[in-house]
Amino acid sequence: MATLQTRATARIMMSPAVILLFLWMIVPLVMTLYFSFLRYNLLMPGTEEYIGFLNYQYFLTDPAFFTALANTLILVGGTLLITVIGGILLALVLDQPFFGQGIVRLLVIAPFFVMPTVSALVWKNMLMHPVNGLFAWIARLFGFQPIDWFAQMPLFSIILIVAWQWLPFATLILLTALQSLDGEQKEAAEMDGAGAISRFIYLVLPHLSRAITVVILIQTIFLLSVFAEILVTTNGGPGIQTTNITYLIYMQALLQFDVGGASAGGIVAVVLANIVAFFLIRLIGKNLER
Amino acid sequence: MARATTTRSKVIFTVIGWTIGFLIFFPILWTFLTSFKSEGAAVATPPQFLFFDWTLENYREVQSRSDYFKHFTNSVVISVGSTLIGLALAIPAAWAMAFSPTKRTKDILMWMLSTKMMPAVGVLVPLYLIFRDWGLLDTRLGLVAVLTMINLPIIVWMLYTYFKEIPGEILEAARMDGASLMKEIVYVLTPMAVPGIASTMLLNIILAWNEAFWTLNLTAANAAPLTAFIASYSSPEGLFWAKLSAASTMAIAPILIMGWFSQKQLVRGLTFGAVK
Amino acid sequence: MGSITLEKVSKSFGTTSVIPEIDLEINDGEFVVFVGPSGCGKSTLLRMIAGLEDLSGGRIIIDGKDMSSEAPAKRGLSMVFQSYALYPHMTVYGNIAFPLKMDGQEKSAIDKKVKDAAHILNLTNYLDRRPGQLSGGQRQRVAIGRAIVRQPKAFLFDEPLSNLDAALRGNMRLEISDLHHQLKTTMIYVTHDQVEAMTMADKIVVLNAGRIEQVGSPMELYRSPKNVFVAGFIGSPRMNLIEGAEAAKHNATTLGVRPEHIRISATEGAWTGKVGVTEHLGSDTFIHTQVDGIGQVTVRTDGDFDTKHGQPIFLTPDPARLHRFGADGQVI
User: Residue B171: phi, psi to the nearest 5?
Assistant: First the structure.
């Protein structure tokens, strides 16, 4: 189907999207890279000068960076743990035939469509509020002292909110993968005398491994840049207890107007994300060859 | 599997399934219920579940006090606008990649995907400065541009996977039948690709509607879509839970319904075809 | 009018040459079949004539005009695809009308042509249906309808019957041959099935590994195959190709004899052997025998011939119909 003519037109048809995306990627990235080597603060215009790796040195040796890095990793890791395990369990339940399956499926995926600012505010106020929140009421009902979520365990609270948002995604993908498992395979395993648990370990889990990898990689990409949930609940606090890398750079750029420092941080974030992206791209690329 | 499941296991799973479904959906349900309460009832202890004085007052208040519809319109313009422009750019590109693949097609697709993986903060500073210098801060135009670029790789990818499923012979037949390139796209490809294009559109409207990094950082009052509008409720002076709930309900309802309709295509779109 | 000339046409993908160099003359009104095993380049050749595939070298001349680099639509050819390639979102009417619409013809003219075509192809009652609601044979006829309304200089068929079941295939073979007699338009037909080639063609082009092995009428190819490949490819059951001592007796490297040119007897003959598997088709019987010093030989005889597995048997090939091939595979 490929003649020279069609190939030439193909190139023309592709070019607007490719060129725009290329500019979108390269121009800001080069600017970030350039700024990262400058002393550049919007509050002190006219003092820009080349300072080499000083911004990186400041950013990478700032204790806040390590806290933010740790917070980022805990946030990503904690959310992944909850969503992957919860997602597998949920997918297994939803895969069983029961009454009203379709409706339950809709209920389960609903949180994914809720905008981050709404879910953060609803959880923070109406559920986790230490006095009037629903959780506090339940705790008192059972005679416990209500937890002041955002004061006592701020990062965990954010993990909980983010996990609620991403659990549907994991469930939906794992469920789709689960349903593509060949029924005859399961029956063959049953004929071979495998019980429910060994069927899960030897048949279902290996079949899901690919989908699990996809869930982990895609969620990681998104979770590395969790922002709105932090902005509307804790503003990174108390102190910097819930500041992740994204939020740290945001503070440096738009609250302290330190363009140089924020740019250096931005480059660091790009490098971190690339490490994850590398694996994801290879996985999807392998898939393309089929 | 062709096997009769026992009624007992079906009942057990019905109970488990509905319990889990209810728990996960509860925050949304609770928001919905609270939006019909008075502010007093909203913070009452013990909480009032169904037996309270239902009122529409909050919806009226939210609109009259805070110009809800301006933000709603912003959300619509930004999400639909960026999706349409994205489609206009992506349909020809995906067409080319699906039907005239070259050795480099795969590399281009992969590269497009990689731009999606760049963290937003990495380019926050220059983009903010460009927007400031070009007067794009707090404009719908600026946000449409940014969201178009953010979602373009996803649109191209989704369309590509859909187009791949259209047999090339049909397009060749059109070519033999004397259709020009434009006619081939208008009369043959597009009608066949409509379901794929529609679900791509739906998913991207959802993603753009809920995008909450650029919309929060690049807008103030004028162009703020619902994400930013809701965020303004986080200010600590006074808790208006009932009004927050009303605003939230209106912000998520349209997208939730669209999401429910497009759930089948969602998986494929979100995993770039890695899971079907 | 529709004469097509291929001049030194070649095709390579990257460094691999698919079609080295082909010269071929197709006369106006001829039914030409390209036949060969899969991967022999016959479909590529057809697609090059159609303009769906670039030439790597050479020229394609249609009605005296060099069309080597014209767009497919400008060549005045119609094509019927293996998958039929019907537009699933259009009705049968819409499908058949599509090329006319693309040509910018008037509505009333289109209507008349579509209805005429539908009449010829027995599709009048199905014009409002969509391809998905049709049977395989009906879809095939729609694809043909779409091809004939343009009144092309030539029809190109790319394995059009391979998706149909055996009975339908027989019917469609007749219908296409019939159509050719009605329209008298040049047809180029690609298939891997030698039965289709034998039954439909005025001229068969046997292709192997991108090369033309032989061009000729069905009976020419049957009676005097130029080489071992054609001998083995044309005719069913396959010609027995015998090598070794028996071939050497006839001063040949390979000796060919068709199953229908061997006399079989229970009592006497030139070769002795044992009966293996016997296939009764009713009208014919194919007997696979194991001949001493020669090996497997298939014999075709009339339907009532009765044998038992393992029974000794005598065979006598018709000496006038032996085909002798040299070491290079060419006929001597």
Answer: -70, -35
How much is the pTM?
A: 0.77
Q: In this structure, is residue C331 part of a structural domain? A: no
Domain count, chain A: 1
Q: Which of C230, C248, C283 is the last residue of a domain?
A: C230
**Residue range A208-227: mean pLDDT, rounded:** 83
Q: What is the DSSP letter of B212?
A: -
Which stretch of A167-171, B231-235, C43-47, C178-182 has the lowest confidence by average pLDDT?
B231-235
Please give the sequence-ordered ranges of beta strands (E in DSSP) within C137-217, or none if there are none.
154-158, 186-191, 203-208, 211-216
3-state secondary structure of B38: coil
User: Mutate which of B172, B176, B184 to test chain C, going by most C C-beta atoms within 10 A?
Assistant: B176
Nearest CA in chain B to C82: B169
**Which residue range is the domain that position C251 belongs to?**
237-325
Instruction: Tell me if chain A has a CB within 8 Å of the CB of C327.
Output: no
Beta strands in chain A (DSSP E): 38-39, 49-50
Write the ipTM: 0.83
Instruction: Say whether A10 and B100 touch across the interface (CB within 8 A).
Output: yes
**Residue tagged 């049977």 (tokens):** C135
CA distance C135 to chain B (A): 18
- The verdict on a CB contact (< 8 Å) between B212 and A115 is yes
pLDDT at B236 > cutoff 70: no
pLDDT tens digits for C188-212?
999 999 899 999 999 999 999 888 9
Min Cα–Cα distance to chain C from A6, Å: 9
A-B contacts (CB, under 8 Å): 326
CB contact under 8 A, A29 and B153: no
- Each residue's pLDDT tens digit, B173-231: 888 888 887 888 788 888 888 888 888 888 888 888 888 888 888 888 788 888 888 88
CB nearest C81 (choices: B169, B180, B191): B169
Question: Is C330 part of a structural domain of the chain?
Answer: no
Do the chains contact at C98 and B174, CB–CB below 8 Å? yes
Domains (range + CATH), chain B: 7-59 (no CATH), 66-270 (1.10.3720.10)
Give the dihedral of Cα atoms C18, C24, C26, C31; nearest 10 deg: -50
CATH number at residue C194: 3.40.50.300
In a domain, A75, yes or no: yes
- CA gap B237, B233 in Å, rounded: 9
Residues C128 and C206 occupy one common structural domain = yes
Q: Characterize A168-178 residue by residue with b for buried, 16 or more Cβ atoms within 10 angstroms of its Cβ, and e for exposed.
A: bbbbbbbbbbb
Same domain for C168 and C302? no
